[in-house]
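Figure 3 (text version): structure tokens given as input.
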């Protein structure tokens, strides 16, 4: 789907990955959709599954997993237990979180247990052609990656986004200042309609922007209408969406004129910190 020169969204997700019996794909962005785009895939974990015998693999790109629990009354809880290996560390995740996997790091064997509610999962690579994996063996000492799990919205700068009261529930913030070598990512709930948004701006880096619904029973529906402006042109979104914004491309504001249930919004970039260009007009 290409409705504007600088706009693209993936709408043809790949098949369920081997061993992920409880995964419902939503949408996928890759350089097959927009040349040079970073790879990102969005989906729900809807059933418990165990995959402990899956071998470890590695990629030639940094990778990030984001897991968000879908209970707005308890946003920090996954309402599930997700486990997998990152090198010689066995990670067990019970909170809304993101996991940074540096390029070349061996990882795999994901399992999901105690699933009380579906979990939203983002898989994102910081380059366009990095999904090809190779078998790998763990070589790092135990504990080397134990700190690569980030929870809560806690930017080192202490600066929080400005928004009308009651509109946002902040979830996650990651950058290179919070975890050395990590890319930028932030995520949040949109809880209400909103007729204001961040002003038009641009970044010196490419960005992936996403919107996801919170009802896994209706995976193709966003549950809201979002008006997103790119180079001054409005795109109205009503489906789960991933948008690729190349560096220097102006975007904003972001308006939510209709909402039937809260939604998830996130942005991420292959940069170690958030920055705006001084002029975006």
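Below: residues designed for each position.
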């Amino acid at each position: 789907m290409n409705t504007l020169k600088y706009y693209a969204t993936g709408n043809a997700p790949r098949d369920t990955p081997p061993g992920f019996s409880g995964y419902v794909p939503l949408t996928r962005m890759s350089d097959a959709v927009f040349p040079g785009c970073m790879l990102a895939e969005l989906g729900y974990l809807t059933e418990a599954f165990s995959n402990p015998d899956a071998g470890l693999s590695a990629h030639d790109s940094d990778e990030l997993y984001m897991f968000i629990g879908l209970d707005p009354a308890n946003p920090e809880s996954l309402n599930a237990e997700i486990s997998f290996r990152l090198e010689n560390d066995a990670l067990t995740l019970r909170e809304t979180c993101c996991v940074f996997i540096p390029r070349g790091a061996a990882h795999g064997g994901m399992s999901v247990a105690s699933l009380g509610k579906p979990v939203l999962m983002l898989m994102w690579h910081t380059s366009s052609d990095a999904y090809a994996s190779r078998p790998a063996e763990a070589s790092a000492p135990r504990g080397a990656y134990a700190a690569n799990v980030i929870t809560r919205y806690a930017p080192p700068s202490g600066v929080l986004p400005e928004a009308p009261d009651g509109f946002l529930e902040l979830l996650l913030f990651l950058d290179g200042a919070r975890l050395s070598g990590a890319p930028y990512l932030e995520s949040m709930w949109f809880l209400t309609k909103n007729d204001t948004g961040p002003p038009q701006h641009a970044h010196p880096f490419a960005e992936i922007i996403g919107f996801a619904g919170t009802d896994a029973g209706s995976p193709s529906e966003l549950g809201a209408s979002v008006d997103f402006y790119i180079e001054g042109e409005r795109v109205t979104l009503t489906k789960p969406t991933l948008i690729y914004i190349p560096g220097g491309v102006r975007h904003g504001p972001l308006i939510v004129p209709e909402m039937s249930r809260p939604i998830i919004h996130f942005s991420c970039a292959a940069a170690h910190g958030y920055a705006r260009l001084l002029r975006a007009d």
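The chain has a mean pLDDT of 89.
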